Amino acid sequence: MSNRYEKGMEILKITNKDTIEEVFKELEDIAPDLGRFVVEFPYSEIYTRDGLDLKTRELITVGALTAMGNAETQLKDHINAALNVGNTPEEIIEVIIQISAYAGFPAAINGVKGAKEVFKSKNLLPLKK
């Protein structure tokens, strides 16, 4: 096992401790290298860079995935990860609302729907006002 893989797995254990095995299980019989690439590049090379903490990185990722509008599973995984590293549901919703000005209301509404699913599964609804 490479040092990059181990470094990336340490970040995944922090951010995605509850869903990490599901991701690899989906890929193992068809594209196991893709799982390794994900661990070795974004989680090892990007997430461990100086300059931003994991909390900020996850909020940015939630914003980017919301804007993309075509990565529902990954968005929910990163909303969960954002919660795991200390972001509040309110912060996550604010990021998604911010994205509405740049990616449009449909993308933001879909992002909020994904957030609602994650928050509901964690018993975090209703949100504080």
TrEMBL record:
SUPFAM superfamilies: AhpD-like. GO terms for molecular function: peroxiredoxin activity. Residues 32-116 form the Carboxymuconolactone decarboxylase-like domain. Pfam families: CMD. This is Carboxymuconolactone decarboxylase family protein.
